[in-house]
Amino acid sequence: MEDLFLQAKKAIVGGVNSPVRAFGAVGGTPIFISYARGAKIYDTQGKEYIDYVLSWGPAILGHAYPTVIEAVIETAKKGTTFGAPTVLETKLAEVIEEAIPSIELLRFVSSGTEAVMSAIRLARGYTGRDKIIKFEGCYHGHADSLLVKAGSGVATFGIPGSPGVPRKLAELTITVPYNDLSAVESIVTNEGEKIACIIVEPVAGNMGVVLPEEGFLEGLRRISRERGILLIFDEVITGFRFHYGGYQNLIGIKPDITCLGKIIGGGLPVGAFGGKREIMEMLAPIGPVYQAGTLSGNPLAMAAGIATLNTLREKREDYPLLIEKTAYLCHEMEGIFAAKGIPCQINQAGTMFTAFFTDKRVKNYEDATGCDLSLFRRYFHGMLARGINLAPSPFEAAFLSFAHNGDDIARTLTACEDTLRNM
Predict the structure, then answer these.
(1) Class (C level, CATH) for 2-64+316-421
(2) I need a labelling partner for 307 at 20 to 30 A (CA). Which of 97, 258, 371, 378 fits?
(3) Is domain 66-314 in CATH 3.30.310.50, yes or no?
(4) Is 52 a catalytic residue?
């Protein structure tokens, strides 16, 4: 792979188009993928890997799912982009709105980053306020306002923010530890009239998987409603991953705006944000808040999204089995770590999990960054050598798909035991 990476670095910044792919946190050379099927990916040398990255979450049906591929091919035959409305956009919007009742109107964009960026602009336009509250370790894309104490790649590379983000703009972003409701209450007491929105991953996935503690999300809904602050759920990762709909459906909390991506595009670039009608109607062309995009609602992405969500709707009764499979994998891994005397906390939420190399319960960003990175590096490369593809960062989630079967789980557990034996 080294020759491919050297060639890539001559043409592409750092040899990659998203920083975490460069293996900077784990060392070594990234694998280059040739193709994928189901729960497996194959590198350019033909080696097979059981994949727990799943393109960072979208491939919940598994790679190259036949009906999704067929939908993309048939749509592409008619043209790839028109810069004009299509019926596909309306169909996918209706499917999403039926599945997530808090979304009364939505707007498609081309990425999760764009969805969140646009949602925050809308929140500021709707409220007439400038400041936002986000949580340490929650990554909401690389828009300027959101790279303050972000997770994901920013955490992986140890970057506290980013050069290029104006100090005055960063000052409009207030960061609070995840799961710290009292800190939010204190800030809102002092600055509530200046705060446009609170944005949160309802289950954090970008500092590794961190679950909301009891009462945390309910508290955010109460506080925001009392002070006229919009509550934004970033469900780019969690949307349609735990069941057919949003995580918000499971907990009975309706945010004002929801951001989606990943799964709703079936593996193609896509994003969406939507919410209450009166808020969404502030957007152009109805209202004064401007947002636009040449490839927004791209027909290929819409077709892939419709095929994916229709299939998930048919499989809605199978979600509990997939969650049970994930729980089994995590439980067995915990036993292997314990038997080897290696401190490890596995946080699982539905069909996603993270193994933190620490003996401390991980409930926020500070806890996550306190894990043993050197142990993770050795574990990552040991698993990769044994055909298990995990995210090359200790601050990311692992995902299961409907394509993962019992043999995949058994092979993963064997690889885990062999890796730890050799550490």
Answers:
(1) alpha beta
(2) 258
(3) no
(4) no
List the catalytic residue out of 51, 131, 234, 408: 234
Task: Summarize pLDDT for 143-164 with one digit per residue, the tens.
Answer: 766 765 544 444 433 444 567 7
The bridge status of strand 230-234 relative to strand 195-200 is: parallel
Give the bridge partners for 121, in sequence order.
Answer: none
- Copy the structure tokens of residue 243: 């069941």
> Is 139 an annotated catalytic residue?
yes
CB 205 within 8 A of CB 393: no
What's the CA gap between 365 and 42, in Å, rounded?
33
Q: Are 100 and 248 in contact (CB under 8 A)?
A: yes
| CATH 3.90.1150.10 residue ranges for the chain | 2-64+316-421
> Cα separations (Å) of 242 from 5, 54, 104, 330?
36, 15, 21, 16
Which one from 49, 139, 247, 365 is the annotated catalytic residue?
139
Q: Which of 131, 149, 254, 262 is catalytic?
A: 262
Name the pTM for this structure: 0.93
Catalytic annotation on 244?
no
Give the end-to-end CA distance of the chain in Å, rounded to a whole number.
24
Checking if the pLDDT of 45 tops 90, the result is yes
